[in-house]
Amino acid sequence: MKRLLIISYWVVSILLVAMILVSLGYRFLEALFVGTLFLPGALAAKFFFPKVNFRKRKSGIKDAVFVVLGILVGEMLLFLVAHYYISLLREGHHIPPQLMPDIPHLLTNPVFIAIILTALAAGCYFFGSWLDRKRPTPPGLISFTSDRKPVSLPVDDILYVESNDDATTVVAKDGRRFKNYTPISQWEANLSPHFVRIHRAFLVNRTAITRVDVDLLCLGDIQLPISRKYRDAVTGCK
Questions:
Q1: At what angle do helices 38-48 and 110-134 cross, to 10 degrees?
Q2: What is the Cα–Cα distance from 202 to 41, expressed in whole angstroms?
Q3: CB–CB of 144/110 below 8 Å?
Q4: At 110, is the secondary structure helix, strand, or coil?
Q5: Residue 94's pLDDT is what?
């Protein structure tokens, strides 16, 4: 059901983008075709940005710039190819040249493209987060690599995830510890909504929380700090 709702979100979003493109001179089917070309960029932004690690600020900013430039260049190339294809189709239907406008300037404007892609990706993120709260999926297995070995662990067996410099440590309820190099922001995206971020360095299993104080959270005998930034998110967990 959740997957169907997410698909419905993208369908409605592309229809709205198509209506914008109609106002730029495209026919509806042409606008719908061009509108779907925003999908690769939006999905790429949704997938790659959570992987950017800003712990090292300069490196994170550089990686983010490369991601943005790559997506924008790729999208503009897609629009140029699509417009050329649409022109060929119109010529095949013997439409007079004066009725075949040049590619709209907005589709070569990186700011316009970035705004549309940001709106699509952000909308999907917030809609997905809302669905996770309303219709949480039972936790299953999560797979990752630790010390160059594949690991599959039931999500409910994970106690918390700790970030240490470039590495993260996945701590299981039975005491096992797995070193991993996936940023904690990506772990947060993968484990949501069953886990809650309490600190820039800690992500904890909601079901394992036994006590919450003003600036301290307990997982049985384990005490972890709560930062001011994440205090509101922790309130009400236990």
A1: 60
A2: 31
A3: no
A4: helix
A5: 55
Distances (CA, A) of 177 to 67, 140, 147, 184: 32, 19, 11, 15
Residue 79 has pLDDT above 80, yes or no: yes
Give me the residue spans of the domains in the chain.
Answer: 2-134, 141-234
Instruction: Tell me which residue has tokens 């939006």.
Output: 42
In one-letter notation, the amino acid at residue 93 is H
Phi-psi region for residue 47, left (φ > 0), alpha (ψ -120 to 50) or beta?
alpha
What H or E segment, with its residue span, contains residue 62?
A: helix 57-92
> Position of tokens 């996936």?
182
Torsion angle (degrees, nearest 10) of CA 140, 144, 150, 152: -10
- What percent of the chain is helix, strand and coil (3-state, nearest 5)? 55, 20, 25
- Partnered with residue 180 across adjacent β-strands are 168
Residue (of 109, 114, 132, 105) closest to 195 by Cα position: 132
β-partners of residue 146 are 149
Ramachandran angles phi, psi of 194, nearest 5°? -80, -15
pLDDT tens sequence across 205-233: 999 999 988 889 999 999 999 998 888 87
DSSP-assigned letter for residue 91 = H
| CATH architecture of residue range(s) 141-234 | Beta Barrel (2.40)
Supply the DSSP string of 153-201, one letter for each residue: EEGGGEEEEEEETTEEEEEETTS-EEEE-S-HHHHHHHHTTTEEEEETT
